[in-house]
Specification:
By secondary structure, the protein is of the alpha/beta class. The chain contains eight helices and eight strands; from the N terminus they run E-H-E-E-H-H-E-H-H-E-E-H-H-E-H-E. The longest helix is centred in the middle third of the chain and has 36 residues.
Length: 266
């Protein structure tokens, strides 16, 4: 049980990040502001069942909030403002999504350090604590942002490629009124025309060369085939019905738009 005050010092820019801590009425605290720092004094005096664990949890939440709302942004500005000035918002959004996926692990790591620290200390400079006692947090931040940037660039390339394919479809002459695509449980596919006749003579030289030269997989081959056949309508029956088939159907829909309809076998 904590019987001493815990003093936290923060930079003024981190004031908004401390709102949750200040709003926790179970923990007595007061905030003092001076020219250089904000100081929050946490006390368990007069409160029942307040212990070191709960105080450590509140301080941990504060640090994690600062990481998400301040440190991630600062790292992006520092590392990517020159080459990706217009993309910083997208990179930050992706970074937050990745951070949220790992937040439970990060919180646990921070909590252990904070809890052990307050057992023997009554003052924490938050900036110094993060910078010197939790250097791994800097690695978390750089890893999250770097991965977010990579994923953003991949998606950007994919979106640009799909835009090119959509334009290609728009200027192509439609060769079939209806093409039926049956995605089978073994991840293969069968194509049928509007009369349910199997299309099995796909020997277009351009497709074959593309498959060989670009090392396309089966899914890429399907999309390449659809581009060549350029149907007016596409009906997809999905027997596979998993993430893989859903992803390829989404890609087909992103290229062919409202030409595509899909059903799933039960």
């Amino acid at each position: 049980m904590t019987k001493k005050d815990i003093h936290l010092s923060l930079l003024h820019k981190d004031k908004t990040c401390a709102i949750n801590l200040l709003n926790n009425e179970r923990i007595s605290k007061k905030m003092i502001s001076n020219d250089d720092l904000l100081e929050i004094v946490i006390s368990s005096e007069g409160k029942e069942n307040i212990n070191d664990e709960e105080i450590a949890q509140e301080i941990t939440s504060l640090i994690v909030t600062i990481m998400k709302e301040q440190l991630l942004k600062e790292y992006i500005i520092k590392e990517y403002s020159e080459n990706y000035k217009d993309e910083q918002g997208y990179i930050y959004k992706g970074s937050i999504e990745l951070f949220n996926q790992k937040e439970a692990f990060i919180k646990k790591s921070v909590y252990i350090k904070v809890y052990n620290y307050i057992l023997n200390n009554d003052y924490i400079n938050i900036e110094g604590f993060v910078k010197f006692r939790m250097k791994e947090l800097g690695k978390y931040i750089s890893d999250v942002v770097d991965v977010a940037l990579e994923e953003y660039l991949i998606k950007k390339d994919q979106d640009e490629f799909i835009s090119v394919l959509k334009y290609f479809i728009e200027i192509q002459e439609e060769k079939l009124d209806l093409l039926k695509v049956h995605i089978k449980e073994d991840n293969s596919f069968i194509l049928y025309d509007k009369n349910n006749n199997k299309i099995d003579n796909i020997d277009d030289e351009e497709i074959i060369n593309m498959v060989i030269q670009e090392n396309l997989n089966y899914e890429d081959f399907l999309i390449s085939t659809l581009l060549t056949l350029c149907p007016k309508k596409i009906e997809i029956l999905d027997d596979l019905n998993n993430n893989c088939s859903m992803e390829i159907i989404d890609t087909i829909k992103s290229i062919f738009g409202d030409r595509v309809s899909s059903t799933y076998s039960s």
